[in-house]
């Protein structure tokens, strides 16, 4: 059975139609009064010739009533409703931003103040990236401080260098030789593991197979999500969002993190002979 057609929006607004009719009638009455005042003031009678001041007032009153009725009609039927829609749109956008938990938007992924704010006092840090070599070097001092906290926990999820699909996909995206990508992943793994100190934070590195369409970093109750670009070469413009717990964006990152954890494996030495391992980690492998 075919679905019943949905009534158009304009046909389902009897209150608006009633308001329009009432206002048009009222404005029409005011317009007619103003027109009558102009008509009276324009008559050439003995009364008006002897009361020029009153005649001027009558003519001005008539003109004012006509102008007011026309302007108020335009405002009521067009201007006020356009203004109301604008206010409602802004209010809706504000409510949606608040519900998402979004706190900052930037196109500069390496925006230092945002990372400084997130690293302050962080205890639980989760990193999901392909290899994050530049990011790790940029935030090395902050990572060392976070790794020194005895109550801290750092987990890193890198691309799986042993998964051929992952390496093929990401190497094409990054315009990089697969072996060079593997080398960077292993270098990042070693770099994070070198942050371990006795009595410091727990540091775990995992490998996750699959493509990456974004990268994100979770700092306790905050998260930073950044898009990957798909054209070749580097670009300084990467849309980056900072959100907080309680919002839909943070919940999205948190849910993703749990799914990623379930599909990840602990980062271990590659399943190759010792000589090949050494070549890959030193960047001399073919």
Write the layout of secondary structure elements.
Layout: H1 14-42, H2 46-50, H3 52-100, E1 102-106, H4 112-119, E2 124-128, H5 133-138, H6 140-147, E3 153-159, H7 164-173, H8 178-193, E4 202-208, E5 214-219, E6 222-227, E7 240-244, H9 248-262, E8 265-266, H10 274-282
Parallel strand pairs: 2-3, 3-4
Antiparallel strand pairs: 1-7, 2-5, 4-8, 5-6, 6-7
Brief write-up:
Helix content is 54%, strand content 15%.
Proper CATH architecture of the largest domain: 2-Layer Sandwich
Order of helices and strands: HHHEHEHHEHHEEEEHEH
**CATH fold topology of the largest domain:** Endonuclease, Chain A
Could you give the distance between the termini?
Answer: 65 Å
Kindly report the average pLDDT value.
Answer: 80
Please report the number of helical segments.
10
Low-confidence region ranges: 1-12, 273-286
Alpha-carbon Rg, integer: 34 Å
* SSE-based structural type: alpha+beta
Q: Residue share in helices?
A: 40-55%
Q: What's the number of domains?
A: 2
Strand content: 15-25%
Please count the beta strands (DSSP E, at least 2 residues each). 8
CATH class of the largest domain: Alpha Beta
- CATH superfamily caption of the largest domain: Endonuclease Chain A
Largest sheet: 8 strands, mixed
The best one-word shape is rod-shaped
* Strand order of the biggest β-sheet: 1-7-6-5-2-3-4-8
Question: Could you characterize what this model shows?
Answer:
The chain has 2 domains: 9-100; 105-282, 2-Layer Sandwich (Endonuclease, Chain A), CATH 3.30.870.10. The protein is 54% helix and 15% strand. It is built from 10 helices and 8 strands. Helix 1 runs antiparallel to helix 3 (52-100). The longest helix is centred in the first third of the chain and has 49 residues, at 52-100. Mean pLDDT is 80; it is low at 1-12 and 273-286.
């Amino acid at each position: 059975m075919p679905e019943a057609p949905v009534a158009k929006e304009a046909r389902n607004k009897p209150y608006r139609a009633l308001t329009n009719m009432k206002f048009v009638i009222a404005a029409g009455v005011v317009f007619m009064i103003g027109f009558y005042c102009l008509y009276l003031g324009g008559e050439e009678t003995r009364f008006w010739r002897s009361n020029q001041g009153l005649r001027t007032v009558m003519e001005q009153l008539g003109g004012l009533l006509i102008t007011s009725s026309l302007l108020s009609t335009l405002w009521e039927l067009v201007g006020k409703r356009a203004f109301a829609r604008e206010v409602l749109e802004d209010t809706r956008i504000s409510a949606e931003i608040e519900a998402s938990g979004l706190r900052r938007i930037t196109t500069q992924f390496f925006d230092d103040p945002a990372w400084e704010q997130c690293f302050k006092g962080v205890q639980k840090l989760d990193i999901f990236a392909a290899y994050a070599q530049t990011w790790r070097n940029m935030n090395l001092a902050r990572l060392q401080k976070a790794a020194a906290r005895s109550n801290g926990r750092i987990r890193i999820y890198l691309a799986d260098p042993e998964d051929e699909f992952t390496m093929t996909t990401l190497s094409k995206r990054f315009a990089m030789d697969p072996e060079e990508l593997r080398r960077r992943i292993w270098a990042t793994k070693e770099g994070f593991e070198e942050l371990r100190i006795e009595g410091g934070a727990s540091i775990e590195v995992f490998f996750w197979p699959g493509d990456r369409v974004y990268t994100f970093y979770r700092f306790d109750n905050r998260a930073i999500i950044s898009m990957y670009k798909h054209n070749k070469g580097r670009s300084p413009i990467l849309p980056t969002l900072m959100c907080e717990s309680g919002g839909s964006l943070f919940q999205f990152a948190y849910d993703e993190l749990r799914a990623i954890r379930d599909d990840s494996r602990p980062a271990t030495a590659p399943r190759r002979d010792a000589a090949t391992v050494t070549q890959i980690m030193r960047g001399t492998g073919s």
